Amino acid sequence: MSDDGSRGLTIIGFIGSVFSPWYHWSGRGRPEEHCCFNVAGFGPGSRFTMTDRGADALSTSRDTLRIGPSAMRWTGTRLEIELDERGAPPVPRRVRGRVTVTPTAVTDRELLLSPDGAHVWRPYAPAARMEVEMNGVRWSGHGYLDGNFGTRPLEDDFSYWTWGRFPIRRGATCFYEAVRRDGTEANAALAFDAEGGVTRTEAPPRAPLPPTLWRVRRATRADAGYAPRQVCNMLDSPFYSRASVRTRIDGEETVGMHEALDLDRFRSPLIKPMVAMRVPRRGRWRPRAQS
What we know:
The chain has helices at residues 21-25, 154-157, 263-267, 271-276, and strands at 8-15, 35-42, 48-50, 52-53, 58-60, 64-67, 70-74, 79-86, 94-103, 111-112, 119-134, 137-150, 158-168, 171-180, 185-193, 198-200, 206-209, 218-221, 229-236, 240-249, 252-262, 281-282. By secondary structure, the chain is mainly beta.
């Protein structure tokens, strides 16, 4: 999020693109055959891109993930991201830029979302500074860096989840809530300080948010008596919502990132063709010749 709140950006690197219908239709046997950089922004001139690419577009090393013409690289102190993508239909304009994410600290914690460890969330850097130059526009703001890992499809093990990350004076607070298929829940409230320390904390009461335009249900956490609200819609799909949300935690008002994911809807075979219209498949890729 930009410091003035007028712009926002999310970048996800996928090996095994969990929301790609092409990955689902392939049987999910080869995750390297379905990789992508998903870029979603809001603000003037923002674009969405999520091109499903094949294995010949993927290159990895200890510090670098390269997918087609885009890459992210960890330098030891910051994450440098270079993007050169095409916007998803119906606006296939070029999405080109550079983003630097500099954490205030890096954690060594992870959260098991399923008892057998088939799904793991890793909050690498819950608080960071971002420098963005995208399609000729520059801005800076606060951000974070995290990762998710899994060995089974999300929709096989979960029916719904909601997540939120909110910057606060001492660092950041994250709430992770997931409803498993067996009826149990994974609930966690984590407080991160500026030095990377992590403590489990008691979550404030659950507070409803209005459903999205696609009627995806939502909720977050807020002090008793406080009504959280959406500040800006960042992504609204039939099964997934991402938005900036204002809430109050321990008396401190904050605007952070919130997402809600309805995996019952995503599981529906009717959804996959709709998603395919926004996720083009490029099975073959070769680097451009250098002049």
